[in-house]
Structure prediction request, 409 residues.
Amino acid sequence: MLSNKVQSLTPSLTLGISSKAKQMKKDGIAVINLSIGEPDFFTPEAVKAAGIAAINNNYTKYDAAVGVIDLRQAICDKLHSENNLSYTPDQIVVSSGAKYSLTNTLLTIANSGDEVIIPAPYWLSYPEIVKLTGAIPRFVETDFTNNFKMTVDQLKAAINDKTKAVIINNPSNPTGAVYQKEELLALANVCVENDIYIIADEIYERICYLDNFTSIASLSEAIKEKTILVNGMSKSLSMTGWRLGYTATTKEIAKAMGAIQGHLVSHPCTISQHAAIEGLKSCADDIANMKRIYQTRRDEATKIISAIDGLSVVQPDGAFYIFINVGAYREKANAESLSLKICDDMLEKQHVALVPGIAFGNDDFIRWWSCVFTVTFCRRQVVLGKNIAERFQHQLCFNRCYKITPSST
Prediction:
């Protein structure tokens, strides 16, 4: 008999599409995969070289449960110079990916039956991590007209005597929405007034297309005391496979996280940690170049998608996703789940893999991964944007005789 916690998990709605896409590729079918949640760039050369050097220098033994001291200091330096935040290494806990940093956080602060507020749409792992730690997810339905950003009134309405924390993902996956300073301050003040922790998932903060990004913990000392800042190397440095995330918080919480981590995983990979030090110190140009390319792709993709009748998008001011409103086609779909039906049909008939919005808590939308808007093939740039949009438009109109001829430059 499996545990109650495992049985409480919601099966991943994306696994079926992902498995089918992989099988189609094995069968020789060319599938355009827009369901991936990682950069399509390789890890910067300086980071790879530092990882190799770490192996050659024999950084292959056990180290501190909370992470190697040089990396924790480099994180403090980064937070000070980029986010106007002052932390010391004993307030930093490095973990095996930001996902585990979130798990560590909830294991540390939440008791069984506590509620964690999650604005919807949300990253699909939030509710499952909350449930695994014994807490209860409480969803706040946000509005498309407000770019799916939670308002003060919505937050206040969700708070009760069981509320322990609220998760604020900024920039957002899946919507790409970015909270402005004034919006963050209003939300944070409510949390401070109600003694609620702010779990600030800022994993996409280096992929923000606005002039300024505000880290919520920088707004005041009182807000900083109630904030567990979560970040990592996967998105900004394209280090998804290296598995490194971190938290910045109070010394008391950091110490508790270190104790939990020491028992569960010992510590994250030492080789990855030494590589990340180099990434934080010397890869600003790589990060800026990736962001510039992401922004160009976003601009082209949103323009093409918005030109299709019946579709609209959340303007993504960060991250590398486009959240597409397909609600106008609900009557045509004739299915229990609109987004799942469209994604199934797109994969089966148009060979394009997308993520259904129902996985993120909103069935009227689908998520498009804009990283693959332009791909490099045989040293030529093959522009897929119009091609994919044509397939999308064709499928929504249910015309099965459509044939695609990819455009190229």
